Amino acid sequence: MGPQSAPDAEFVPALRRGRPEARELMAALARLQALGVRPDPAALYPGARRVDLPPYAFDERHFWLTPQAPAATAGTTATDAAGLGLADAGHPMLGAVVSLPDGGAVLTGRLTAAGSWLADHVVQGRGWCRARRSWSSRCGPAAKPAAAGWTS
User: 120 lies in a domain?
Assistant: First the structure.
């Protein structure tokens, strides 16, 4: 009926049955903008204010977090399992020892490039360690800390 009564006018549907009202209204405003009408955004969003856009993505600014080393407790380093409340194993390759109820123990350790013992195991700039099934028996009594309940 509208186009017949005003043939020189442009009609833009704003509300359609079965479609979300907000989306349809924004689509109608976009169509009006494309036709040269300049809608007033302040009328749509009262109390809105202008904000700066984020910087250009490739302007050599970095916004990601840098990794932080975990904090250490007194007498431990941040990477020692002893820092978790476990007993110190007393050997550079072993991090900590946990006493088991049956009298046994679980020895923990981590092989990392930051390990102090690795400096003695470098060949042509690369660290290495030969694996053995019985390596713990070669550590001797020094690897059996009293805190874990070991006896020599």
Answer: yes
